[in-house]
Design brief:
The protein has 22 helices and 17 strands. By secondary structure, it is an alpha/beta fold. It has two domains: 419 residues, Glycoside hydrolase, family 3, N-terminal domain (TIM Barrel); 235 residues, Glycoside hydrolase family 3 C-terminal domain (Rossmann fold). The longest helix is centred in the N-terminal third of the chain and has 18 residues. The chain is globular, with a radius of gyration of 25 Å. It binds alpha-D-glucopyranose. The site of alpha-D-glucopyranose has 9 residues, from loops.
Amino acid sequence: MTATDSTEAVLSLRAPIEPASERARCQVGTPELDSDGTARIPETLPTYSDWPEVRSSVPRDEAVESRVAALLATMSVAEKVGQITQPEIRSITPDEVRAFHIGSVLNGGGAWPGDDKHASLQGWLDLADAFWEASVHGNAAARIPVLWGSDAVHGHANTYGATVFPHNIGLGAAREPELVRRISAATARQIRATGQDWAFAPTVAVPQNYRWGRNYEGFSEDASIVLAYGYEAVRGLQGDSLPDPVGSSVLACAKHYIGDGATDGGVDQGVATVSEDVLRNVHGQGYISALAAGVQTVMASFNSWNGPDAPEGKVHGSYRLLTGILKEAMGFDGLVVSDWNGVGQVEGCADDRAAQAINAGIDMVMVPEDWRSFIANTLKQVESGEIPMSRLDDAVTRILRVKIRSGVMDAPKPSRRPFAGDVSALVHTHLAREAVRKSLVLLKNRVNVLPLAPSARVLVVGKSADSVQNQTGGWTLTWQGNENSNADFPASSTVLTGLRDALGDSSVVFDETGESANPADFDAVIAVLGEIPYAEGFGGDLGDHSLDASLLYPEDLAVLDRVSGLGAPVITVYISGRPLWVNSEINRSDAFVAAWLPGTEGAGIVDLLVQGDNRHDFTGRLPNSWPRSPWQFELNAGHAGYDPLFPLGYGLSLHDSIDVALLDEAAPPRPHDTLSPARVTDTSPFRNLA
Ligand code: GLC
């Protein structure tokens, strides 16, 4: 039985909710809510026998529709084609936005105004104003402001000075939808401070294979968590209802539709072959709840879906997925944006020629560099009828509808809006530190080594003990989250600085490799080990690699051998985007804390390591199952043969006296069914980088 079959077996155990009744329809997609209206993580995953029609919290408004129609009627074909075009800020100027009637721009990971990583708030606002002026005061009859989108996936992390929150995997450990809503609302204010309009978040993937390098961008392997979090993330970003006269809210974007976490072998941008039932009832849950929450944009996914009875191929080119299911069956009336040159992977398309993708249901094309030739080609394809004018009009209608609902059509320029230039909107130290505390999962605490007394004298080792870069991971200032130093994070703390604050400088000795100091001279050793930061493609996908600890910094591998068993208890803090097979590291630790990718507030980890006044306890629970073997790439609760070291939902508190027996450090032989997938697919943009 394959994992997919066993998922179906699990799903079949639950009575499907039959849509269609009016009462069911208006509730379909909306999670169970607490008395204060916050989504609850359901005990039982709601399942659907067909794609449900979801009633959005943003209802259709005939006044908006009339305004859209009136605007559309004034637009030339060139203005319509410009409106569906989304270049990247490094390849277009405000004057070109004006000349080509551009509807949206984005800054990709590692793109800043003036190519300055430390660009000031004013620098961001100046560029936002320039794009806005160019789009509003262009030579078109219609005054249609540009939308600027950004990957604010764990706070507005591309921006210098912004608080960076834990990545989604850490929030999944917190099991607190209300926290996700507060973080999303704070993120919206961060985005308003720099003048953008749109967060390419939340990611509502349900990662099922640890080979996938974007595992940490998902909240959990458990669709129930993703369902509740997707709902709250959208409401945190967009506010309770739209239109919004551009207060603190921004547009949200549920991504990547659909099946990004389901690909065979966890290959990024690969092929998902799950059944339609699994696609809907596992990987679709976050979209159903995001639509119910009123999400106005959805980003198409790079992957393909070839279900047993539905070989759709690339999602970017699938009419059935983008139009038949998302727009017609589920009733989504916002806009679908493609991913970065995603249209170029569709048969018959290229990065700058996208008729098949647009006809399938892509409304806005993210064409970072080749936007000029895209516009020229698209004008020809509309003229020839390859792209029907009705499809172009539908795409522009959706874009205009979203712009009116978001409030940008009637807003002043970005620098004149609430929170613009407001540094206090960028910094959310207390909220981030709370999130870090709630994300930590205690996996081992032998004879109650934790918490440390405030009088303790500690030795600190490990490559991630004093590295904000390693704490924040990918999608932070740079695309891959690397090439950053602590100086790039003015408002931040690390485990080391947190320990110094808690215990006093004289009680904390830092010896990164553990080669100098003698552990026996200390009350405890704190070892902070971690993965080297990565984002999509690149270092993230494991390809042929096992889950063994060699994904950690090489320097970290010998650290625990140097400091363990020498009289001082060892407390290991593990900074990573996914569980790995770390049996030997756990054996050499007296306490072991999974800290995921905590962001800029590393001191939140120390809040639970050292007994303080406002004493906190570990409340985090595993959002992903922890592997017993280096070959357990697909390890998901409810699947056949489920045999984790620590199960989904596992986590100790300081009062638990559970020791972990010595673990087997010999890697078992590779089972035949984990033959490595192709390192990259033939359509992956990373094919030349493998
Ligand atoms: C990337 C990612 C997507 C992101 C987009 C813009 O390739 O797949 O998550 O929003 O490009 O940076």
